[in-house]
Write a structure and sequence with these properties.
Number of helices: 8
Shape: globular
Mean pLDDT: 97
Low-confidence stretches: none
Number of strands: 4
Distance between the termini: 13 Å
């Protein structure tokens, strides 16, 4: 899950819906949770549900971007900063792994306490919903997130292989353009886990990606002030 940097509030909002354009400018047109790209149809997502936290209904620091599936999964479940990881506060790319088949899980090498927080985030927005899971975690007919993840995983692996045969600047730029349009930042970063140049290009291409989550060689590091 892509870690993002939240800028200072561009303005004061009378209605939370008015923040959508500023959020897209800040984070890009990607769901903050499943990482899919939506040029339209994203919604202002309240980290702390507005129905439970009316004081933060129009609070910029309580906003992320959410797709229909992630929003429906999250619903009005109570949240906080202590029991969950969040992409605007933690290095969620370090905490969550993607793998073949459209699977998502907490990273295996996490400290147990941090792993629990990562699992809670995954379950909160239903990123673990997959046909291979138990009945309680089966996706609905309208939830195709796992399908898209599997497709993008295969695409990223194919393009990584193609880069070994066409390793030049033009092809690298074309790959980044493709990754930017297709979404799923975490999957592309996983595909190029050992290619620092591609990782830098991907970070540059995705608006709002948190640079403080990366070392100078574009490997991952814990985020200052976060749980990871």
């Amino acid at each position: 899950m892509r870690p993002v940097t939240r800028i200072a509030a561009p303005k004061t909002y009378m209605k939370y819906q008015d923040a959508i354009g500023d959020l897209e400018n800040c984070f890009g047109c990607y769901c903050s949770y499943c990482e899919r790209r939506f040029p339209a149809c994203l919604a202002v997502e309240h980290v702390s549900p507005k129905s439970l936290d009316l004081a933060r209904e129009t609070d910029w620091t309580n906003f992320l971007l959410g797709c229909v599936n992630c929003n429906l999964s999250k619903g009005a479940k109570p949240t906080n900063d202590q029991d969950f990881l969040w992409p605007d506060k933690d290095n969620t790319l370090m905490a969550i792994e993607y793998s073949a088949g459209g699977l998502v899980e907490a990273s295996s090498n996490l400290d147990p306490e941090v792993k629990t927080k990562a699992v809670r985030l995954i379950e909160l927005v239903g990123l673990d919903r997959h046909p291979g899971q138990p009945l309680a975690k089966q996706p609905t007919d309208r939830d195709k997130r796992y399908v898209e993840r599997e497709e993008k995983w295969k695409l990223a692996q194919l393009k990584r292989d193609a880069l070994t045969r066409n390793n030049n600047n033009d092809f690298r730029e074309a790959l980044v353009d493709l990754a930017k349009e297709s979404g799923f930042f975490g999957i592309w970063m996983a595909a190029f886990h050992d290619d620092s140049d591609m990782r830098r290009r991907l970070v540059d291409a995705y608006a709002g990606t948190a640079r403080d989550c990366f070392e100078a060689d574009w490997s991952l590091k814990s985020r200052a002030g976060g749980h990871i």
